[in-house]
Amino acid sequence: MSQLILHHYPNSPFSEKVRVAFGIKQLAWKSVQIPVIMPKPDLMPLTGGYRKTPVLQVGADIYCDTQLIMLELEKRAPRPPLLPTNAAGEARALAMWVDRNVFWSAVGVVMGAISDQLPEAFKKDRGEFSGRQFDSDKLKAAVPIARDQTYAQFALAEHILRDGRPYLLGCSRCADAPRPSPTRLARFHGGFHGSRS
After folding, report:
1. CA-based nearest residue to 71, from 28, 30, 17
2. Whether residue 14 has pLDDT greater than 90
3. What is the rounded distance in angstroms from the CA atom of residue 86 to the CA atom of residue 112?
4. What pLDDT does 83 receive?
5. Average pLDDT for residues 9-26, to the nearest whole number?
């Protein structure tokens, strides 16, 4: 297998998911730490302008987006699988839901709480990336809405669990090999835990 090179920064929650997957699969990998904010002079030419984190490099192939990176790791190292073999589609949908819906509503809560403490360079960078001004007062004011959105996502999970199943996919081990579920990998998102345990 070609060498796996992860372009990331330490406190990126999406990068943490990939690093955990490397550990689960016991894959050797190299680390290239990139800046949290622009400029990213070594990353941008490599990705053709993609600035998000993480990026996986395997030889001349570049993989941008955590979901795509996870699929590539499954293809290159199928054992142990990250997804239950008898519910892979459901697990991918669940991971996408956590990454897109749960995580981003939780980010609204966290950013509202810490926006005054963030460096000005970070605020400027994220404002330029999003196309709107990073406004700490607006973020604080939006915390109740973001909190409600986050709770609504958890209420949906509770609704799924009403049938008595202990896990969203029905069982802790939905196939023959032990592995973390997408929701267990999702716990490494900063919106779920302030620190890893």
Report:
1. 17
2. yes
3. 40
4. 84
5. 95
> In which region does residue 133 sit, left (phi positive, over 0), alpha (psi from -120 to 50) or beta (all else)?
beta
Three-state SS sequence of the chain: CCCEEEEECCCCHHHHHHHHHHHHHCCCEEEEECCCCCCCCCHHHHHCCCCCCCEEEECCEEEECHHHHHHHHHHHCCCCCCCCCCCHHHHHHHHHHHHHHHHHHHHHHHHHHHHHHCCHHHHHHHHHHHCCCCCHHHHHHCHHHHHHHHHHHHHHHHHHHCCCCCCCCCCCCCCCCCCCCHHHHHCCCCCCCCCCC
pLDDT in tens, 116-163: 999 999 999 999 999 999 999 999 999 999 999 999 999 998 998 899
**Confidence (pTM):** 0.81
**Structure-token match 């800046």, residue found:** 35
Range 57-60, long-range pairs (CB < 8 A, 24+ positions): 57/4, 57/5, 57/6, 57/7, 57/32, 58/2, 58/3, 58/4, 58/5, 59/2, 59/3
Which phi and psi angles does 65 have, rounded to 5°?
A: 105, 130
